[in-house]
Amino acid sequence: VDFPLYSAAMLSPRHILVAGGGGSANTGVKNGFQIFEVTNDGENCTGSSVCRFFTGEYSVMSLSARGIVNNNVPLKVYVATVHKEFCQIYSVSLGRERKPSEPGVRHRNVNGTPGQKISNGQNKIIFHVEPLKKVQIDYHPQEPYGKVVRISLNNKLLASGGDDGNVRIWSFPELSKVHEFTTHDKEIDDIDFSPDSLKAASISKDRRALVWDIKKGKKHAELGWEPPNNIKYMYKRIKFGCVEDDIKKYKVYTISNPIGSSKAAAYLHKWNTQSYTVEKYISTPGLALSALAVSDNGNFVATGSMSEGIVDVYAAFNLSLLRRVKNAHSTFITGLEFLSTSEESAPCRGFSDASVVSISVDHQVCVHHVPKLATISSFWAILLAVLVLLLTFLLCSFLGL
Questions:
Q1: Mean pLDDT (10-residue bins), the chain, 401 residues
Q2: Where is 139: in which H helix or E strand?
Q3: At a CB cut-off of 8 Å and minimum separation 6, what does 85 contact?
Q4: Is residue 173 classed exposed, middle or buried when 0-12, 13-18 and 19+ CB atoms within 10 A define those classes?
């Protein structure tokens, strides 16, 4: 693309939106977002631009998208974006643009009746973008600035955070304030909703990670761990992830970087949501982390690095490393987003188990596949079991057992 990228979101099983821009300075780099249709020819994954929308003076540093889905095809998608101290909502609707027809071909006469004219026109899938409501989400006294917005999975709530340190919960898409949590002391860096939309989690520059009960309107839990060697750490990103595609069962994932130490390891943590204690963790010595994503079925977790453009993909259940991509980007990774794991998106993924999209300020959009694990057919499995039993029996007979 021709602009630096900061955020990404899936709109459908085949369409991804990437956003960013050059900011309010008159640099000639436009602000906005672009929608791509992802395809795979069996060897290469490609993206075809189907829509480009400009957001004027506002670069898009954070966004969230949710759609009303019918047979996995969204009829309308709501996109929430951060525009300085405001959240702007857009409606993105699926449509078709008819290309001009070339001179048609007419069949020969049949029983004296003129044949039907066949048009050569083609319909092209496009997205129509319409700005909707806007609301102020940050009230810092010196320089108000929103940092993050998230739409809940049930499309009924929106969470926002910014420089004033307050987490605000809004009804969606009406944008009426439901709750305002003032526990954090510094700016909010990330927010996420639980898959059942009953909890929200936030992290801040005050080095705290808090979980909020939306129904009760109060703090539910706080995450805490003991860093090694008394090194101070700051949470960078936080995400919920369901367990085995069940939205009622979920885990929390965080990435944390050391403060003031370039040699100390960064951490990926997986948290139990009953006790909110650490279940598993992975350390990355000498490699600070900048991005985090969890697949929609909860089976995969991906991280992106602050340097060397590294993307790591892990199995969520034990955090085993499935794939590492080095030099995916020439600079730090600003965002990660998994393609849908639905059957409809399987051709886009090249029928891999999972695919994750990485973006950066280097203007590149990259797709990384996690190949399917090698499996053995039931016939060969049964045959192997029979052979093992037969050899065991022969061995026992030979030894006189």
A1: 95 93 82 94 88 94 85 76 96 73 46 41 74 97 96 97 98 96 97 97 98 97 93 97 92 96 90 96 94 97 94 96 95 96 91 95 94 58 74 73 65
A2: none
A3: 136, 137, 138, 139, 140, 144, 145, 146, 162
A4: middle
| Region of residue 260 (phi > 0: left; psi between -120 and 50: alpha; otherwise: beta) | left
Q: Is 381 exposed, middle or buried (0-12, 13-18, 19+ CB in 10 A)?
A: exposed
Note whether 178 and 157 are within 8 A (CB). yes
How many CA atoms lie less than 13 Å away from 149 in the CB half-sphere? 36
Contact 209, 237 (CB under 8 A): no
Per the CB < 8 A criterion, the answer to whether 278 and 224 are in contact is no
pTM of the predicted model as reported, rounded to 2 decimal places: 0.85
Q: How far apart are CA 250 and CA 288, in angstroms?
A: 26
CA-wise closest residue to 158 among 137, 188, 127, 184: 137
Under 8 Å between Cβ of 177 and 136: no
- 3-state DSSP call for residue 41? coil
Tokens of 248: 């009622």
Q: Report phi then psi at 212, rounded to 5.
A: -115, 140
What gap in Å lies between CA 380 and CA 383, rounded to an integer? 5
The closest of 208, 272, 207 to 240, measured between CA atoms, is: 272
Strands (E), 214-265: 218-223, 233-243, 246-258
Nearest to 75 by CA among 21, 132, 30, 15: 15
